[in-house]
Amino acid sequence: MENDIIENIERVRASLKEGVTLVAVSKTHTAQEAKTAYDTGIRDFGENRVQELLEKKANLPDDIKWHLIGSLQTNKVRKVVGEAFLIHSLDRPELALAIEKESSKKDIVTDCLIEINIGCEDSKSGVLPEHLDELVELARSLKHIRIRGLMAIIPKGTQEENREYFKKMKQTFDDLKKKESENFSMEILSMGMTNDYVTAIDEGSTLVRVGEGIFGARDKNRGGNQNG
């Protein structure tokens, strides 16, 4: 298993373009498996669940950057603010306000990505494109949230179907660059997972989330509905 992880990481790295961040999605995998990836030089890890992120963070080296990539319930905000390096799943006003409130209490600024439901799928989280402007304007007004870009999990489809969604995300990303301010910037475009990250990079992704492509098939008994 250890050798498989190392070989997988080498293969994924070889397919990345310069400047693209690789987040190893360690959700449902053990801390030891994550440590194997860490030992190859990986420093960015993604988790779906707040509790699993906190447990791994407590048992792995301090220089890891932990990315929360799964849906975030407002009642879990208190636990994750100040612990996650980047929250990828800011997708609604009430969540923005909850993160703002908790960050203000802790006197910190929390880095977030706005998650867009670019395929308008009922089964996925993310702000619908028609509600994006409202969320953007709210986020821009908050003092303890710093928006650093966008995230999307696209619908399953063919490579060309995937490409069209990635193009839409890149266009939205570029459009929002016009609204950049001190706490709102388009630095990170988080799109692309194990099966489509190469296409995502071709269309402008700056951060890819790879889980099964590094760690192998996940333990489905441990849950998690958004993957890498």
TrEMBL record:
Superkingdom of the source species: Bacteria
Modified residues (N6-(pyridoxal phosphate)lysine): 27
Keywords: Pyridoxal phosphate
Keyword Protein biosynthesis: no
Pfam families, per database record: Ala_racemase_N
InterPro entries with a match to the protein in the record: Ala_racemase_N, PLP-binding_barrel, PyrdxlP_homeostasis
Keyword Cytoplasm (UniProt): no
All copies of domain Alanine racemase N-terminal, residue ranges: 5-218
NCBIfam families in UniProt: YggS family pyridoxal phosphate-dependent enzyme (TIGR00044)
Biological role stated in the UniProt entry: Pyridoxal 5'-phosphate (PLP)-binding protein, which is involved in PLP homeostasis.
Protein family (similarity comment): Belongs to the pyridoxal phosphate-binding protein YggS/PROSC family.
The protein, known as: Pyridoxal phosphate homeostasis protein
Organism: Youngiibacter multivorans
Lineage: Bacteria, Bacillati, Bacillota, Clostridia, Eubacteriales
